[in-house]
């Protein structure tokens, strides 16, 4: 629909002109001050030094200690009531973590005790440095698999177990260094380049890969492929169906997997019974171990854990590679696994912080996670992070502070000192069942369907990461996830949306996208477009060409309907937060191209940064200061009046 009549009288023109506001030109900024503000907003958006402002020296010292060690902040208000909640939560997550840790160590191709070590030292370090009240620290399925897969590509964990273990400690050390460095230099925004869709696809694919890997222990297969893709795994499984499967193992695994899934279902249906899925793994381990010992099922081919080394962590500083051919491999593996561990931990911490309505400092969290992994690598631990299943149990058990991690750590210590010999007859199939039941929840079909409904491009990213992990490897899936996330950013940056605007009816002064609002009216003689992005070197040519195509298309439509030709092109710059030199040149070229067609370029609502650069480049002199307006409506009133006058003449 088009506007049929326009104000044309001189009196109306003067009245409208008197109400047109000019675009404000900001005063010149000090270059150093401007640079400092930019750096501050980039690296210190949370203004971490704000609490120190106007404080006495003694108070600043206290605040400094609290900033480094959050325990000094919440520890002042710690009470017996809070300890009660932490004690119950700590005991609950300990019952869950002990069997999980033994299983996750298998995923990393390490001896069972290293999983327990990792739930002893790192949680103690995090309790002092971390700011999340709900996160439960220890080994995690995804990180264990990634670490194990990347390590075994370098060293055979069976034939050369000592060097493999040393490389695991080296990778953990450099993962901690990477995490701490990101926090200290406030570069946490880098992990945000892995989009939510990519994470959903990656985690779902990894969950399937982990579950497939557990078929070795679940079915009692001795000779199993080292590859993780679904084709190789299924070929290995079906290839050993007649000579490798053990029916006693399958019966034990299937029975207890059903029990674990039933327990999880009960806990999900009724939140009051959260403790049932929490203690179900430990009950499964105790019962299955008892049955194997009583019936001596190990003599009938049921594989058992056999031996878990008794005692606490041994120092391992001397085992870390600081020189030699494995150093750079440790750096590479550590950086990749450390970033994934960091992404998982921060996602968990932020989720539960929002549920309890408190804030966490992402950069402090990175430093805390990095410090605990550096210390962990020196005390026979492999890469630790936050576990979602344990953190959920910790939250539902009523944890109040990170003391729940300390309680869990003490229980693990007692287990290492007193109970590990009792795990001798624990069947491997029960550990596989525990891991399968733990990772099933990571296959998030509901989120995938939601991503499909919301954004098809996001769904491509999600499925790319998922299929990369399932059909190739964790590393390829991760590479695809990062690549597609970056590709989406580049696509959005290089191909911004340029839309046609029309005026909403009923005497409004609002101009909106005509595709979204079909009733929006086009103004004869004017073409109004809006650029929904900053204009940079990467997209300025596309913006210019897209506007040119709009102009050609609309001219043809106006001619066909015998409407006045287009005399003014109005660009709404309100969404354009910035423009660079290439963008300025593209507007200059557009202006010159339009002049040849006898069309005037008009700009509306440029922001501070944009108008600053217009004046610095003298673009305002080229276009004309009187062709830059505060609002689209001001520009339309002025331009439509001129169109009407030309029609009368």
From TrEMBL:
Q: Which Pfam families match?
A: STAS, Sulfate_transp
Q: Where is the STAS domain positioned along the sequence? A: 516-639
A GO MF label: secondary active sulfate transmembrane transporter activity
Q: How does it sit in the membrane?
A: Multi-pass membrane protein
Q: Where in the cell is it found?
A: Membrane
**Record keywords:** Membrane, Transmembrane, Transmembrane helix, Transport
Return the annotated region ranges for Disordered: 1-22
Record's GO cellular component, any one? membrane
What stretches pass through the bilayer? 167-185, 197-215, 245-262, 274-295, 333-353, 365-385, 405-423, 430-452, 464-487
User: From which domain of life does this come?
Assistant: Eukaryota
Q: What is this protein called?
A: STAS domain-containing protein
**Organism in which the protein naturally occurs:** Nelumbo nucifera (Sacred lotus)
